[in-house]
Amino acid sequence: MVTQPVVLVTCVYQALLFGCQYLLLASFSRVFHDVYKQPVGIASLHYIAMIIGYTLSGQVGGRIVDKLYRAMQRRNGGVGKPEFKLPLLIVTGILMPAGLLLYGWTVQYRVHWIVPDIGIFLIASGARMTLFVCPLYMADAITMYTASATSSLVITRGAFAFAFPLFAPDMYMALGQGWGNSLLALATFVIGVPSPFLLFFFGERLRLRSSYSVRAMKLMT
What are the residue ranges spanned by the domains of the chain? Predict the structure, then answer.
């Protein structure tokens, strides 16, 4: 991960979005129980918004990736590139900060619970798309070493998922839901918006700087 630029960029991008998702997962039931005064059983039902986001984005997103890949492959003379699987990440880079802002400020001002749920839906959709696009890209970019590259993705996002919930209570206590989630939205925007463009336009150059990627491509051809 630390010696292969294309793996590093992909790992950091995915791990940040995954960490933010887990930070929120740790706070959902407490937010709806303490802020909206809902019973624990009712407060836990808001995870349904995340289930819907995961399911729809997984079903629709996969089809969009395939359609876009085939279209760009035709325009490129029938030759496919790993970067052709990345355009959907541009959407995730927008969905995550938008969902975080919507969720944070509507909870801060105690807007009807359906509006924070819409924010949760957007967050889940962005996270899910990232979770299946990044491994797809790694599979094409590193080919023969896909298992190792995917392991880097899993380890990095696992570390972020472990670390982020640890500081969630202190962050929300100090900043509140509005500014606390705005801070997360800023982080996901700064990393999440430029990273897909960076990988799409410069991913091939990064792959050529990766000894594993170059060697894998030679072995495959």
Answer: 5-220
Of 177, 89, 167, which Cα lies nearest the Cα of 133? 89
Smallest CA-to-CA distance from 8 within 184, 197, 126, 134 is with 134
> Around 106, how many Cα atoms within 13 Å sit in the side-chain half-sphere?
17
Distance of CA 32 to the CA centre of its chain: 24
Reported as a single tens digit per residue, the pLDDT across 36-45 is 999 988 888 9
| 46, 117 contact by CB (below 8 A) | yes
Domain spanning 5-220: CATH superfamily: MFS general substrate transporter like domains (1.20.1250.20)
Mean pLDDT of all residues belonging to the chain: 87
Q: From 4, 13, 3, 2, select the one nearest 198 (Cα to Cα).
A: 13
Q: At what angle do helices 211-220 and 194-208 cross, to 10 degrees?
A: 70
Q: Is the pLDDT of residue 92 over 90?
A: no
Q: Considering only CA atoms, which of 59, 66, 6, 53 is closest in space to residue 214?
A: 6
**108-130 tens-digit pLDDT:** 999 999 999 999 999 999 888 88
pTM, two decimals, is: 0.89
